[in-house]
Write a structure and sequence with these properties.
The protein is of the alpha+beta class. It is built from four helices and seven strands. The radius of gyration is 16 Å and the shape is globular. Coenzyme A binds at residues 23, 27, 29, 87-90, 95-101, 121, 123, 127-130, 132-133, 136. This is L-methionine sulfoximine/L-methionine sulfone acetyltransferase.
């Protein structure tokens, strides 16, 4: 099977919503228990577009999105403007085919194009697949926060991993 990674368009939002809502209902990857409607995903899409940040989808021969990845600002203060936090999700029936790592590798390249310096992943500490994929792509663990979340009646630990996109780069002297 040949897969293609491309920028998402509004027609991908129903598939993205399905993948997102599955993660809400059936995983500890998203710490929400409320599913979202299409309007919610459209607003998210518009916000990413307005910021010039990518949403990438990986599609099959029928151009159906099987997974997606995106990043947003890590924290809403101007001093964090060179750091982004990303997410990557693969449809439950498509996991185990290395689509996630392909998406993440492509997203890393886009973060470099956006002149970002650091990518941050905030991962539920029991998510061995995600931690493995991030390590494979060069991320290192930079923090572990016990019991900062709750879902399905359990406390959740958060593992932070980060990737320096341009190691050794001097801080840009631009003003925000
Ligand atoms: C995490 C996720 C993106 C990974 O994408 P994927 O396409 O399913 O990735 P794969 O299962 O093909 O795994 C890629 C690698 O992880 C390894 N892996 C898979 N499951 C694993 C597990 N439970 N423990 C350790 N390694 C695991 C695979 O062996 C493979 O390693 P390799 O390339 O070194 O052989 C995907 O499973 C997913 O969408 N999960 C639900 C949402 C989620 O957790 N998103 C991440 C939030 S931080």
């Amino acid at each position: 099977m040949t897969y293609v990674i491309r920028d998402a368009v509004p027609a991908d939002l129903p598939a993205i919503r399905e993948i997102y809502n599955d993660a809400v209902l059936n995983t500890l990857a998203i710490w929400n228990e409320q599913t979202v409607d299409l309007d919610n995903r459209q607003q998210w899409f518009d916000a990413r577009q307005a910021q010039g940040y990518p949403i990438l989808v990986i599609v099959d021969h029928a151009d159906v999105a099987l997974g997606y990845a995106s990043f947003g600002d890590w924290r809403p203060f101007e001093g964090f403007r060179h750091t982004v936090e990303h997410s990557v999700y693969v449809h439950p029936e498509q996991r185990g085919k290395r689509l996630g790592p392909q998406l993440l590798a492509a997203l890393i390249e886009r973060a470099k194009v956006c002149n970002k310096h650091v990518m941050v992943a905030a991962i539920e500490s029991g998510n061995a697949a995600s931690i493995h994929v991030h390590k494979r792509l060069g991320f290192v663990t930079s923090g572990h926060m016990p019991q900062v979340g709750i879902k399905f009646g359990n406390w959740l630990d958060l593992t932070f991993m980060q990737l320096m996109l341009k190691p050794g780069a001097l801080p840009p002297q631009e003003r925000p």
